[in-house]
Specification:
There is one protein chain. By secondary structure, this protein is mainly α. It has one domain: Orthogonal Bundle (PTS-regulatory domain, PRD). It has 6 helices and no strands. Helix 2 crosses helix 3. The radius of gyration is 14 Å and the shape is globular. The chain starts with a helix and ends in a 7-residue tail after the last helix.
Amino acid sequence: MDQLLRERLDILKEAGEISDEIRAAVIEFAQSFEKKYPLTITEENASMLITHLAMALARIKKGEEIIEMDELAMDEIRQSNIYGELPEFYEIIEDKLQIRLPESEKGYIALHACTIIVKLQNEGGSKND
């Protein structure tokens, strides 16, 4: 994960929006994603995923409700060739934070993750160091 995204997480933590625990879980999620797929998580390709994930985890930890994703959009995401691989990433977060991700949040994570991978595949799939 690039330095700009780490700084983004630091700003969210310093502002009291996320905890150290959430920051660490998001970084571990990103590092695991980078190990599985031939890419580097950067501000350019994953700022929406990382920011959304950090803020959503803060809302979940506070017990706030996560709005359901549109079912048609969810059906489209389920068609992605990586959709079935995503539970291993949900487990990283759930184990690290001792929470259960709501299905609605898994949908949003899947949306962002699938978008990153599809874009990578369309660009020829190389690591962006």
